[in-house]
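Complex 264.
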Amino acid sequence: MRKSNRVKQSGRVKRPRAMNRPASGGNGAAKGNGTVILTEELKKYYFLGAETVQAVRGVDMVVQRGEFLAIMGPSGSGKSTFMNLIGCLDTPTGGDYWLNGRKVSELSDDQLARVRNRDIGFVFQTFNLLPRASSLHNVELPLIYAGVSARERRRRACEKLELVGLGDRMDHKPPELSGGQRQRVAIARALVNDPALLLADEPTGNLDSVTSREIVAILTALNQAGQTIVLVTHEPDIAAAASRQVHLNDGLVERDFANLEART
Ligand SMILES: Nc1ncnc2c1ncn2[C@@H]1O[C@H](COP(=O)(O)OP(=O)(O)OP(=O)(O)O)[C@@H](O)[C@H]1O
Ligand SMILES: [Mg+2]
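Predicted structure with magnesium ion bound:
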């Protein structure tokens, strides 16, 4: 427990010392250095009648801009719960979280919605695309919520679909695409607002090994261009692409180490 870094409950927010640490690992040159994620004693408990499930029990983590982090750990160790917390999809039971230097618990509902839309891109195992909408429309969706004009939406969605190699599949609907192509649409959608943080919870969990490698190659290329990525995976082959691995066990960080052989 790092009590010395606690933040005042009210008044001016004191930045924890870790915010000022130099960047470590990754190659964030393209987007500059800085801390994207900082958690202190982050906790999530679920209260189910008489039973309490302690899914995340106090995680301290710092992720610098440009890092590519793989979170691993047994089923039920709290990986998805932690991802949902750092993706601002869920509220912690305790502890603190700063995203890009802003304390998430102090954001208003409007600010939080904006952060979810603009600062975070989320990729899920099950793609979560609209089945009756084209690739282009699926990728444009976050821009519609962000109030971007139709012309600009189209331009940006096309650019991201080209980036993931789907320039020739813009009018296809998800049922007309392979699993790997669907996940690439989901990655393009996650990237369309140029988020500071790309989160992917088992993005290759529903894909065969060849297709999984294609998705990892895309994520690696994005990271090499400066994108900060946090990925959950069960597969050591996939985690090997990341510059750092964090292993969770029973809601706590068990190991956290740099992978010096990533991206050879
Ligand atoms: N909404 C919920 N209500 C109650 N308990 C939950 C809820 N979501 C998760 N849990 C519990 O919290 C713990 C952590 O779950 P979580 O989904 O984070 O694990 P995980 O590491 O992502 O596992 P997997 O590898 O199987 O996806 C588990 O014991 C799970 O049963
Ligand atoms: Mg999970």
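Strands lie at 35-48, 51-64, 68-72, 94-99, 102-103, 120-124, 197-201, 228-232, 244-249, 252-258.
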